[in-house]
Specification:
single chain
Length: 329
């Protein structure tokens, strides 16, 4: 763990009984604590029309967090590129990098980040003629490259600004594209662990060195709930179980308080599905969390862990992130 970077993934969760303004206040507070505890990055994820998640305007939140911190890298985990014109993203992140030089990351995904109806509202043109993700990424790279004489369309700011690009995904496609373009790759093990090892293998085997990266660099997203005891952590984890139960039932709701009686909420089949989706999660007291994270790093060989650690009470979330940071000691 001493050689493994730790970072934070945040969806600006909205807890039941709390406001979106509370979520944003907690996001900044968590980022400031994460910076003090030695975390490397703080990423925010694009989601739309989902009760319980307030990170829709991802680039705006990145600016808010970067403006309230000093050294930690801040970025997107990720921006769903098919939802946007690459020129707009180049301008937004060129602006962010200009304001906070050397601290901005641009992680890119290709999922809609929402339901079908909202995807139509975001993308407008559903004719089936959308560009492939590879074309969108290369168009984005074109706008970040130094402008050429006679270039008709430029990103201002953006052209000539070096914003690190990442490809994010839960599939083999994203791993293969990251390898082909010579970009760092982040796998979404925090909600889709099924293809993890195959995706990492495809990425490493197919990797082609690029101007920005000479060797493969892999990050793993993982759900971690840490507390001062195993029992307390298991109790806090029921908030996350309820979130995933809602996803399975297509009932997106605000973050629920933990419960001592999950069996009254889910059926045996639903329990199996939730725990399967969260089978890579690490839940426990300090010793169990340290051992669990060390095992994950040993199994996967990733250079960085992107931690998602949500809890209903902000104080519990802070304590969890603090305990996780201590695994590097």
């Amino acid at each position: 763990m001493k050689n493994t970077k730790l970072s934070i993934l945040d969806l600006a969760p909205i807890a039941q009984g709390k406001s979106i303004a509370d979520s944003y206040k907690n996001t900044l507070d968590l980022a400031q604590h994460a910076e003090a505890w030695g975390y490397h990055r703080y990423w925010l994820a694009e989601h739309h029309n989902l009760d319980g998640i307030a990170s829709a305007a991802t680039s705006v939140l990145i600016g808010y967090v970067a403006g309230g911190t000093k050294t930690i890298r801040v970025g997107s985990g990720g921006v769903m590129l098919p939802n946007h014109a690459p020129l707009v993203i180049a301008e937004q992140f060129g602006t962010l990098e200009t304001l906070y030089p050397g601290r901005i990351d641009l992680g890119l995904g290709r999922a809609p980040g929402t339901d079908g109806w909202t995807m139509r509202a975001l993308r407008r043109d559903m004719s089936g003629k959308e560009l492939e993700m590879s074309d969108l990424v290369q168009e984005l790279q074109y706008y970040f490259a130094p402008a050429q004489p006679g270039q008709k369309v430029r990103a201002i700011p953006g052209a000539g600004i070096k914003v690190p690009l990442w490809l994010l995904g839960s599939s083999l496609y994203s791993a293969q594209l990251a390898a082909a373009l010579g970009l760092p790759f982040a796998f979404a093990g925090h909600f889709a662990p099924e293809l993890l090892m195959q995706a990492l293998d495809n990425y490493r085997v197919g990797f082609r060195p690029s101007e920005v990266l000479q060797e493969p660099y892999a990050m793993l997203g993982v759900q971690v709930i840490a507390a001062d005891s195993d029992e307390r952590a298991q109790f806090l984890a029921t908030t996350n179980y309820q979130r995933f139960l809602g996803i399975i039932r297509n009932q997106r709701v605000s973050m629920a308080p933990p419960t001592h009686d999950m069996d009254s909420l889910w059926s045996p089949a639903e329990k199996e599905m939730v725990l399967s989706k969260l089978r890579m999660s690490v839940v426990g007291g300090p010793e169990k969390v340290k051992a669990g994270l060390e095992e994950l790093v040993a199994q996967t060989g990733v250079q960085e862990l992107m931690i998602m650690s949500d809890a209903y009470e902000h104080s519990d979330r802070l304590r969890s992130v603090e305990i996780i940071a201590q695994t590097k000691i």
